[in-house]
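Notes to self, tRNA nucleotidyltransferase (CCA-adding enzyme):
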Amino acid sequence: MAIVPSDGDAATQGLDVYVVGGAVRDALLGLPAGDRDWVVVGATPESMSKRGFIPVGGDFPVFLHPQTKEEYALARTERKSGRGYQGFTFYTGVDVTLEEDLKRRDLTVNAIARAPDGRLIDPLGGQADVKAKVLRHVGDAFVEDPVRLLRLARFAARFHDFSVAPETMELARRLVEDGEVDALVPERVWREVTKGLDAAQPGRMFEVLQKAGALERVMPGLVFNDEIAQQLACGVRCGLSLAGRFALLCRLSTQPEDVGRRVRASSECIDYARLLPQVVAALPAAEVQSADSGAAPAGAAAQLDLIERCDGLRKPDRYMDLLRTAACVGQLDTELWRTRLDAVRSVDAGAIAKAQQGRPEQIKAALKEARLRALSSLA
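result:
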């Protein structure tokens, strides 16, 4: 997708518009084009509305293109007026220049603009930092917005071969020392964490937060170390779901589900975080083998207990996803476990209930015995 408007775009004809941020950065890196963000210089909200643009901004004027639905924001400056990432006053007058807009951004690699003729506007050296693979803050205003620390950490996870400039890390520590990170709301933390977990090297996000002294402040109770970082890298290689990666992240935490609740994680992520340690702890007993290589009664009982405890009969896909996640912690034959799960699910509960003439206790015992036999019969 081209990153300049077409000559036939009546909505933008005559506007002073530029593509900014991620689309320009990724084009310089040779990465696939993603969503484009536009800045409009010298326009007013009224003139944008007259052109058919749809206003969607809250704190400052942002509009959707009438056809493409891409976002067009009026060039703006900002001034710190309160605590936290919402404590800013914005100015979007027609006299705000493109350079002034770029100077309020977080990182130099995100502060490059491209004009419709392809010309790059780069007053802050972003191209040089892209080439040198460095994540560097735009200015000292970095310490005014704690979201910038989250974004720095998330970009470190996405661009894992980029270093973080030492002076930028120093400002990140100041954000923590000054208490700015304490103003972050859980929902905003979770939004950035999900993006970090979806990145090429998720562990780098939490390494950066840890080095800045922010990890305990933004994710209380999370235990993170090199072991978790390696397991997260395995999760990426194996294509694990977000819930699986989050469970790996929280695996060594004392109360993994509480870590999720504090950041308003999804219920699925919280469930995975709660169940994964149980799966990992139960696997040694479940893999006990008898002398003739068949599952010993104790092993079959442990296998059935694990399947039932994780609700594998009703939620087989989630159960197998948990096992694939556990395989990043230790060696595990997921195909064998699929066979075991299928064997247990093949037991005809209806036939057993009929044979026991509907007596609940006898049904329960007979069903368990049948499932254990199915497991024990596997070679």
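- The chain is about 50% helix and 10% strand.
- The longest strand covers residues 16-20.
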